[in-house]
Amino acid sequence: MTIGTVTTGAPGTPAEVTNSGTAQNAVLNFTIPQGLPGTSQPVSLVSSYSTPSQPGSSGTPITFDRNALSLGTDISHTSGSDTFTINQPGVYSVEFHGVITPTANNTFPVNINTSLEVNGSVQPGGSVPFTFQNATQSSEVSFTVPISVTDVPTTLQVAPFGGNYLADAVSMTVTRLGNS
């Protein structure tokens, strides 16, 4: 027995196997139907960033003064705000990048933990700690965290905890991936 041809049939047609050889020397030819085209969900995301350095004290959320791209209505952010709002249940990806530097008025060493907060609670997997030995050090902080949202509106903020800080070159993108 050998495999002959394998072809793709039209969507919705049955799979088919034919023998183009003999009963003693079978040559099997397969026709496998193509899957039906899937439907794509509309893209829904908000990408925001901040241009100036911004000082903050422990627990003060980082402000994003500009929106780079906003598509759809599932997520909203007002320029100059520290809060992103999710308006539609589903699964989301939250990406944050930034540079955190301790201010000189901290007692060193100081551990600053930059965290994603969902409705005011730290999201597991969404925290990056760094222990600074002096005010000249900085830490490039980034995380990507999936979250499942069932109750809306849901708020998102990023806040460093543990000491006073400067936040620079911060950006955050929230993307809806689909339904839960």
Task: Give an overview of the whole structure.
- There is one protein chain.
- With 180 residues, this protein is an all-beta fold.
- It has two domains: 2-33, no CATH class; 45-178, Jelly Rolls, CATH 2.60.120.40.
- 0% of the residues lie in helices and 59% in strands.
- The chain has strands at 2-9, 16-19, 27-33, 45-49, 54-56, 66-71, 75-77, 84-86, 90-102, 110-118, 121-132, 139-149, 154-161, 165-178.
- The strands form three sheets. Strands 4, 5, 6, 9, 12 and 14 form a six-stranded antiparallel β-sheet that branches. Strands 7-8-13-10-11 form a five-stranded antiparallel β-sheet, with no helix packed on it. A three-stranded mixed β-sheet has the order 1-3-2, with no helix packed on it.
- The radius of gyration is 26 Å and the shape is elongated.
Features:
180 residues, mainly beta, Jelly Rolls, five-stranded antiparallel β-sheet
Reconstruct the topology from this structure.
Blueprint (H helix, E strand, L loop, with lengths): L1 E8 L6 E4 L7 E7 L11 E5 L4 E3 L9 E6 L3 E3 L6 E3 L3 E13 L7 E9 L2 E12 L6 E11 L4 E8 L3 E14 L2
Parallel strand pairs: 1-3
Antiparallel strand pairs: 2-3, 4-6, 4-14, 5-14, 7-8, 8-13, 9-12, 9-14, 10-11, 10-13
Query: Portion of residues in helices?
Result: under 10%
Count of individual domains: 2
Largest sheet: 6 strands, antiparallel
What structural class do the secondary elements suggest?
A: mainly beta
